[in-house]
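User: Hey, my collaborator sent me this sequence without any context and asked if I could get a structure. I don't really work with proteins. Can you help?
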Amino acid sequence: MDAIKLSETPKDVADMVAIYKHGITFACLEKVGSRPFQGLSSTFKFGWSAGFCEALLVCNAIRFETYVPSLWMRKMKILTPGIKGSQKKNIHKRRAQELFPNLKPSRFTHAYVDALLLAEFARRLSLALELPK
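Assistant: No problem. I've predicted the 3D structure and written it out in C-alpha cell form, which is a compact way to encode the shape of the chain:
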C-alpha cells in the first residue's frame, strides 16, 4: 500500500494512480459532505478533492464504492462515539499500527492512518473476507 497527500499537485496524484492502476481491483472512498460551521472556501476545496478522487478512479476504470465513515470505522473497530480530536486519532493510530506492524513508524501520522484503515477496509471487501462485527 502507498499513499500520497492530495495537497500535492493533481498531476502527482494522477501519476501515482497511473503507476498502480493495474494492481488495483477495487477502491473505497469515504462518503463525505460539508460540515456545520465549515467555511465556504474549505467546503469548496473539500468537495473539489472528493470529486477529483472519484474522477481519477472513473478515468482509470477502477471499481469503487463509497462508504460513510461510521460504517467503515465500525467494521475496522475504530468507531469512537463521544470521543473527538487527538484522542480519537490516537485510537486510529494504534489500530493501524496493529494491522501494519511492518510499516515504518514515520508512516503513522494522523493524516495517513485513516487512509491506511480505509484501504484495509477496501482490501477486505475486495477479497470478500468476513469483516469483524
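In plain terms: The longest strand covers residues 27-30. You can pass these C-alpha cells on to your collaborator as they are.
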